[in-house]
Amino acid sequence: MKNLYVGNLPHSTTEPELRGLFEAHGAVERVSIVTDRETGRARGFGFVEMTNAAEADKAVAALNGTELGGRALKINEAKPKTDAPRGGGGGKRFGGGGGGGSRDDYQGHARQPREPRW
Fold it and tell me: What average pLDDT does the chain have?
């Protein structure tokens, strides 16, 4: 079993279309095209899970760089998700702050000027 990442997909690509592309090279277990949660529109990449690892390697060699809908596909073995925080959405980044736009930890106290670090 091998999971393949397929990038640079045309947004119009369907799962059956992607399945057909890979089934020419071996048995396909599962196909999923990643869509935007809010709009439901395809995000331009997906995953194809192939039953046989050797067939998957042949599919990568045969299909990587080939054109689909005018776009050159980028295909490689999918890497498992890491626990590293992702860039977009949710959570506060770069500080954030309490009410009133003040970042003083001591509310109501005047802030002392800092000395230069050098």
Answer: 83
Whole-number Å distance between alpha carbons of 91 and 26: 42
Quote the Cα angle for 84-59-62, to 5°: 115
CATH 3.40.190.10 fits 2-77, yes or no: no
β-pairing, 71-72 vs 74-77, is unpaired
CA distance 63 to 65: 6
pTM for this structure?
0.68
Confidence of residue 115 (pLDDT cuts 50, 70, 90): confident
Q: Which of 56-70, 83-97, 103-117 has the lowest mean pLDDT?
A: 83-97
Provide the residue ranges of all domains of the chain, joining segments of one domain with +. 2-77
CA dist., res. 3 & res. 56, Å (int):
8
